[in-house]
Amino acid sequence: MEHHKTYNAMELKVRSGSLIIEGPITAHQLKNLEFHEDLVAFRPAVQQHEALVGIADLPEGRIIVAREHNLVVGYVTYLFPDPLERWSQGNMKNLIELGAIEVIPKFRGSGVGKGLLKVSMMDDAMEDYIIITTEYYWHWDLKGTGLDVWEYRKVMEKMMNSGGLEWYATDDPEISSHPANCLMVKIGKRVDTDSIQQFDGLRFMNRWMY
Hints:
The structure is a single chain. 29% of the residues lie in helices and 27% in strands. Strands 1, 2, 3, 4, 5, 6, 7, 8 and 9 form a nine-stranded mixed sheet that branches. It has a single domain (8-205), classed as 3-Layer(aba) Sandwich (Aminopeptidase). By secondary structure, the chain is an alpha+beta fold. Strand 1 (8-14) and strand 2 form a beta hairpin. It has seven helices and nine strands. The N and C termini lie far apart (36 Å). Residues 37-119 form the N-acetyltransferase domain. It comes from Lederbergia citrea.
């Protein structure tokens, strides 16, 4: 399948003024933006900036950013699942993963995460995909937010719901290893039945082992 990307943008009012949420943006556009030093959830900010530039120009790669002037303060990534994960088995061209979403502490609770998801889904091409995200509690900033595991899970689930992603059951061992971990999914309107059945096979790979 061809991977079409249509740019969209919105303005989000925040206490300090307003942010622009836009994307998918190109690697060239991303290189010309500064990356906030507090974007360190997955790796140091400089390295994360480089990683996003690498994703932006992949055929299926999508980067949506929230920026204050020229400074990136939040982002969300979409790309094919990691080759080491079960979700890449079957080599589905219409299955992409929301791989990371991050917002600097200053703007958390301002609707930036929801805005990133909203702009992501403005692109009609997203209706051609099964979009997944795997949420693991050990990635969550429990210390920085002061939330416990279940409070954070509730916030995360609500944010993902705003992008149309819903909780789906799975027997994936890593997700099943803690009850707060979860798989969330959005199945686009144009996804065919065979793809949905293939995806269901990925969700439950151990069903015949019992």
